[in-house]
Amino acid sequence: MIRTLSMSSLIVLLSGCALAAPFEGPGYDMSEGLLIEADGPLIAVVTHARHAKGKGKEFDAHVDAIVEQLEASPGYVGKSLRGEIGGRDAWTLSVWEDEASVSGFMAQGAHLDAVNASSEITELLRAARFEIAPEEMPPDWGEALDILDEQSPME
Predict the structure, then answer these.
(1) For 71-84, what is each residue's pLDDT tens digit?
(2) Whole-structure pTM over 0.90, yes or no?
(3) Of 33, 49, 77, 143, which one's alpha carbon is 20 to 30 angstroms from that of 137?
């Protein structure tokens, strides 16, 4: 017997599941791999945020602005965004050429604006950094989440 699912039933089934976009950016191509010369390890940054109830649109606006800033940032290699279906949790996984590039990005523009607004629009905010060898690109979400849990456990 074949049953059809209503849209609300499907949403209930999928709630709590997360989907990630493919890793992409100016320094990485899915078919060609790494597009930059890297002498040593790259820097990966994984974040997890839960927006406060009623703050989803404001949170999303900050994410959109940050993604725009990413694309123009020196040393930015690529990213993958991950979100919980029907939920308030979102993750980012970005890769950078070096620590100076990460620090420069974080200290200005849309990212700094989002950090300054985070106490009002988020209930949870975690981040971790780790090195990734060029030949290990793109980063694996499972490994990145394990590192995030080790470096910044949920309370």
Answers:
(1) 999 999 999 999 99
(2) no
(3) 49
Distance (Å, whole) CA 148 – CA 109: 25
Strand ranges of the sheet holding 76-84, from the earlier edge strand across to the other edge: 18-20, 76-84, 89-96, 42-51, 122-132
The residue whose two tokens read 């070096």 is 98
pLDDT per position as a tens digit, 96-127: 999 999 999 999 999 999 999 999 999 999 99
Domains identified in the chain and CATH numbers: 41-151 (3.30.70.100)
Query: How many Cβ atoms from other residues are within 10 Å of residue 17's Cβ?
Result: 11
Cβ atoms of 44 and 139 within 8 Å: the answer is yes
